[in-house]
Design brief:
about 250 residues; alpha/beta; Rossmann fold; 8-stranded mixed beta sheet; two-stranded antiparallel ribbon; 12 strands; about 25% strand
């Protein structure tokens, strides 16, 4: 028997997600990264006054609303999220948002779509309050010292062949955290399995934490070290996926 820490329901079988089999929760349709985010927020008892969700995932909206006083989401095409009351938002030029206005910006599997990713990181830094955090998740290859990006590869077919998805513009390597630090962030890496430490040690970072969930209101599954007793399997997580928590200092 499996368990989804996002909707807190037991799962008999995982469903397909995009082209991947046995990934999605049948109840909330969450993928691995969404469940990992839920565990991170619960484990660290995170609550934000004002949270910005870039390119919002439907499965996470209720979670973020329960962890914030004010939830705002935005996308280049807000019509896709009209039932979310999404605003039009270009992550590289968020000129409709004030400086120092958010406690958290959440950007999951977004930056690999953006040519000017450093500009997007800098914009996230700008709109965060001092002490606020950018929570970022990405697809990443740990055998790449430098991210693989070639802007002459500009067709859907070429991008899918090189980067694994038709609208990705790079595959991030071990230098992802350096890009974040160049923008001024203090970078903490959260991980769920000790085997992943070997990849973290190849990167530049400020802190690392093995994710633990000991929330009093958690299901019994959630009260143990995720890296023990194959809990990453029970939650159906990718044991090599990281959460980058980037604090504005």
């Amino acid at each position: 028997m499996f368990y989804c820490p996002l909707c807190k329901k037991t799962v008999k079988h995982w469903l397909p997600y995009s082209s991947r089999k046995q990934v999605a929760c049948p109840h909330c349709r969450s993928a691995e990264r969404h469940r990992l985010t839920a565990l991170y927020l619960s484990a660290n008892k995170m609550f934000f006054d004002k949270l910005l969700h870039i390119a919002p995932e439907r499965s996470l909206q209720n979670l973020f609303k329960s962890h914030s006083n004010e939830y705002i989401c935005g996308d280049l095409d807000p019509h896709r999220y009209r039932d979310f009351n999404a605003v039009k938002l270009d992550a590289t030029d968020m000129n409709n948002l004030k400086n120092d206005s958010f406690d958290c910006v959440y950007a999951s599997h977004i930056l690999e779509h953006i040519v000017e990713d450093r500009k997007a990181m800098s914009e996230c830094y700008r709109v965060l309050k001092e002490g606020g955090v950018l929570i970022a998740l990405i697809p990443q290859k740990f055998d790449l010292k430098i991210s693989d990006e070639d802007y002459s590869v500009n067709t859907p077919e070429g991008r899918k062949e090189r980067y694994g998805c038709w609208d990705h513009v790079r595959y991030y390597g071990l230098d992802f955290s350096e890009r974040l630090k160049e923008c001024g962030f203090h970078v903490s890496i959260y991980y769920i399995h000790k085997e992943a430490e070997k990849n973290i040690e190849k990167m530049v970072y400020d802190d690392k934490y093995l994710l633990v969930n000991d929330s009093n209101d958690s299901n019994d599954y959630d009260k143990e070290l995720l890296g023990s007793r194959n809990h990453f399997s029970k939650y159906n997580l990718n044991k090599y996926e990281f959460i980058y928590v980037c604090k504005k200092i």
